[in-house]
Amino acid sequence: MKPSIATVVDGGALLDTALAALAGGLFVTLAFSIAIYGMTKSADLRRSGRDVAAFGAATLGVCGLVVSIAAVVVGLGVTLTG
Amino acid sequence: MDGDLVLVIVVITALAFDFTNGFHDTANVVATSISTRALSPRTAVAIAAVLNFVGAFLSLQVAATIAADVVQATAITPTVIFAGLVGAITWNLITWYFGLPSSSSHALIGGMVGAAFAAAGASAVIGEGILGKVLIPAIIAPIVAFIAALLAIGIAYRIVGRLRPGPVNRGFRHGQVVSGGLLALAHGTNDAQKTMGVITLALIANGNLSPDNFEVPFWVILSAATAIAAGTYAGGWRIIRTMGSKIIKMDAAQGFSAQGAGAAVILASTHFGFPLSTTHVITGGVMGSGAGKRLSAVRWGLAGNIGAAWLMTLPAAAAVGAVSYGFTQLFGDGALGPTILFVAAIALGLALFSRRLQRGQPVPAS
What we know:
The structure holds two protein chains of two kinds.
Chain A: H1 5-8, H2 11-47, H3 51-79
Helix pairs in contact in A: 2-3
Chain B: H1 2-35, H2 41-55, H3 61-68, H4 78-97, H5 104-120, H6 127-160, H7 165-205, H8 218-234, H9 237-246, H10 252-271, H11 278-293, H12 300-329, H13 336-359
Helix pairs in contact in B: 1-2, 1-4, 1-7, 1-8, 1-9, 1-10, 1-11, 2-7, 2-8, 3-7, 4-5, 4-12, 4-13, 5-12, 6-10, 6-11, 7-8, 7-10, 10-11, 12-13
């Protein structure tokens, strides 16, 4: 009996690969874009004298940066083990 | 004695392939960073070389696939593997000469399959492994990279689109140092392993390793990592220009999205042992980030030419692999045929290399 494509292809592994790649690529871009938004907005707000809002935006930017770095580290750890 | 001599030739040829792989493919890795001026060409290539070296040590899943799921290790000889490598290197050099970013990985697999088929017939080729582990992932991976980059650039533009472009571009350029590094690391994890798999396969075919207990010797890992890093550093400036600016004109956010998507796809595939074409994936990412801005930004005609080169890679490398095996058999089963072919291949490679260097106009290295 000839094997069908369904039996030859590990669909689960392919789907996991696609989902992990999509999730990883999108999440890191999202987090890093938020980081850039926060930092840029903070600079603009500080120039217009709105220090409290600038601090909030800077905090958002730092959080985005930390999350994006953490996402890269965790992603590397997960994909390169096992 | 003859077997050991052929094995030595196979190892040298495999490392030469690894070098050409780095030379040929890693230009694709650094192209986006250079195109958006996130990094100078020299710095980008140096970082890519180091991270390719590091990446080669991080996983062995792809090496296992190449050694066990493409051709029957017990049905072939080191001469077959050598002929397959000649097929792959020849196709790599031809596409490099014409500036086409085709797939080194598919050239390698095509060469191996062609030589194994010529030597031992269809029974030596593991059709299920090639279909399930190579061909279908080869189709899906660039599509996933395209979609990931398309969505990623959409998210990025939605978040930062109304901000001043200066700081935004600077931010994404900084991000590209990381995303480009990740891409180089991912390239090392997937592509260097293919050479490790081939050398391990030759060691199994020659009786130096057991086929029942897959293990890549450390010297194989170290030498493959060094070869791909050296090839990367040597660079492939002509292909850098094709990938970095001829497909689309990119801004830093697009470069970041393309590299991030490409790295994510390659790393996830490495985890599951799929020997991807990193070239296909990166091109998918670049096109996705271009299409995310506007469809007309992508030069579809050039992308079509690249696609045609992709389609030709497996059969062309297989044909050269089969012819190479036939050539070695003109001189019997010993080491004479592989030795003559080895010398001829070096001469051809050097001739093409010097001709290209005389005619090429390299990108300024600063």
